[in-house]
Amino acid sequence: MKIFVAGLLTETNSFVNLPTSIETFRQGHVRPGQGHTAAPIAGAELMWVSQRRAAAGEFQLVEGSCFRATPAGPTSRQAYEELRDEILSQLSAALPVDAVLLGLHGGMIAFGYPDTEGDLIERVRRLVGDKCVIGVEFDPHCLVTEKRLAHSDVIVLYKEYPHTDIVEQANRLIDIVSGIVQRGWRPVASLYDCRQIDSYPTSAPAMRAFVDRIKSIEAERADEVLSISVVHGFVYGDSPDLSTRILVYTNDAKALGDELATTLGNELVGMRGQTAPPLLSIDAAIDAGLSSSAFPVVIADPTDNAGGGAPSDNTEVLARLIARQLDNVAFGPVWDPVTVQLCLDAGIGATMPLRVGGKVAPTSGTPVDCVAEVIGLKRGAWQLFGNSRVECGDAAAIRIGGVEIALTTGRTQAFSLEAFTQVGIDPLSKQMVFVKSVNHFYAHFGPIAAKVLFVDGTGPLRRDYSAMRYQHVRRPIWPIDAQATPALLV
């Protein structure tokens, strides 16, 4: 069995002024043969798993490129076409192949290509023909469109949010693809549209129980049920196909798949408005942290999350921490390449005037003008995203009064403790740790937190989805519309 693997990943926020360029993808390019690392590179997990299984003798592997870009605004048309055509050229040179594995995000939008991954999958199908098996791994914050289903054989999504099971689901995808090629499996899809927009962290009780039940169904009925995925959708990706959906693949058992997708979808409809944690005002979050008898209290700002395409330079929470003269607090990471470079030039121990954050847009807030001490520096900083490694550029830490702030040249959210520890900030010793993240921080910060809270930091990622100014989302859909009727699409 001969398999080709490649990847193209970014998540598109339709509402931010940060276009995604070819240079951004090139910075995150994992070239063929490059991903043979001890731990997977974030975004290239499917390639990493494929390499290991090929090395074990399961199949012959031909590696294409994996292009990754931090979530931001729409990708330029030229960038997408160039990257797409490079992958297609690599695939063409590898033909004939028995299967193609594509590691995609599923939430990408390029200028001129509203269904970007659908376009890529369709072109792959034209190239390889109907007999070749196409397997796709998506992030749950994706779109699952009828076009994507029509031109692929199977699509598997990560189940966990935070995404701690990317490698596990990559293995599941390869198992299914191998079953199709070697055992004659016949996966059939059932897609149920819940007609709703919401957030579904599996670190919260409601979604934890829901996903655990899905895993139990897969385990107990493995001979019939190949895969069950919850399509969260990316709430800031303005697309006609944005909606929460349930995707079920059975082995030639369409009626069973329809029943499962409908049942699970209706359960999710019944959980509307109950899956996302509440947001506190800035002062209420600070007061809750100060009143806690145990520490650290981890307080997340989901409104300025780089993982959702935000700049990660909003200053409203930071300014309030400084104004209240708080002590023993960590904050970050703030995207501020200029300030990081000034800190690198000055060196650890320097005290100097700085202007922090507030640079990209009105939603970034007012820059914080301060006199700060440089307390830590790190060239080539990184974090862990689950078990994968995320590069963060250069980093610095500064102290303003009792607040210690992590700054980066690479736009990133807080994934793991390394966001702070690499620049000399110890989260475990702090009373409060403020992180810019929606939920991915939870995998590493949750275990050390005495309490986890969420703050409305006034960044660009609004959490009231009913107030979003969508232009392309198909209506009716909850919570914009009170009456939004779910339906089986496929």
Automatic annotation (TrEMBL):
Q: Which domain of life is it from?
A: Bacteria
Cofactor remark from the record: Binds 1 zinc ion per subunit.
Ranges for the Microcystin LR degradation protein MlrC N-terminal domain? 2-288
Query: Pfam families per the record?
Result: DUF1485, MlrC_C
**What positions does the domain Microcystin LR degradation protein MlrC C-terminal occupy?**
299-472
InterPro entries in alphabetical order: MlrC, MlrC_C, MlrC_N
Q: Which cofactor does it need?
A: Zn(2+)
Keywords, alphabetical: Hydrolase, Metal-binding, Metalloprotease, Protease
What this protein is reported to do is described as: Involved in peptidolytic degradation of cyclic heptapeptide hepatotoxin microcystin (MC).
Q: Which family does it belong to?
A: Belongs to the peptidase M81 family.
Please give the name of this protein: Microcystinase C
Organism expressing this protein natively: Paraburkholderia sejongensis
